[in-house]
Amino acid sequence: MIRVVLADDEAMVRTGVCGILTTDPEIEVVAEAGNGLEAIELVARHRPDVAVLDIRMPKFDGFAAAERICAAESNRTAVIMLTTFSESTYIAKALRAGASGFLVKSGDPRELIAGVRAVADGAAYFSPHAATTVIGSFNDDRTARGDAARQRIEALSERELQVLALVGAGRSNQEIGRELYLVEGTVKSYVSTILNRLDVRNRVQAAIIAYEAGVVEKLS
């Protein structure tokens, strides 16, 4: 069962999102919050697999709440940002806050379920428009950032580089395990080590480094 905390300051939106999520028998909304501060408290209390956060909320907006949740030492909760807006500045801010997913409220309801399932499994998920924006950001000034990214991955072992490349390609822990003939627990250990060595908060930020360093291209 995938346990979710949902935060949005509009009760009607919470009801709608909750209704969509619970159409999947493997997803359970364990708590709902009306503001960012309450979301932080509920995540600490319930320790869900996923927190779905609206961006515009009182008492800590979604970005601030995501940053607090992702920075917690005991955190095992993946964060998805859910918003009406999909501007590149919002997406970049969500990534810096540590979010693993970014969805727009006007999107296909099936994207919400797919996104929750993906980030709960250790992958990342972005709405089509957000994904296009993220990919575009890799192409902008990539040469300048590539050298810095390659320096950051120098400390990784050959196996860690293989795992990083697959993380960058969007593979889940289960998929990485199948491809590299590793048990899922070992993959999780590798991913944790990679995040620590790269000094990043989550897989999305590691994936960005993987793209900038060019390790994902070596898979093809």
UniProtKB/TrEMBL annotation:
GO terms for molecular function: DNA binding. InterPro entries: CheY-like_superfamily, NreC/VraR/RcsB-like_REC, Sig_transdc_resp-reg_C-effctor, Sig_transdc_resp-reg_receiver, Tscrpt_reg_LuxR_C, WalR-like. Pfam families: GerE, Response_reg. CDD domains: LuxR_C_like, REC_NarL-like. Residues 3-120 form the Response regulatory domain. The keyword RNA-binding does not apply. This is DNA-binding NarL/FixJ family response regulator.
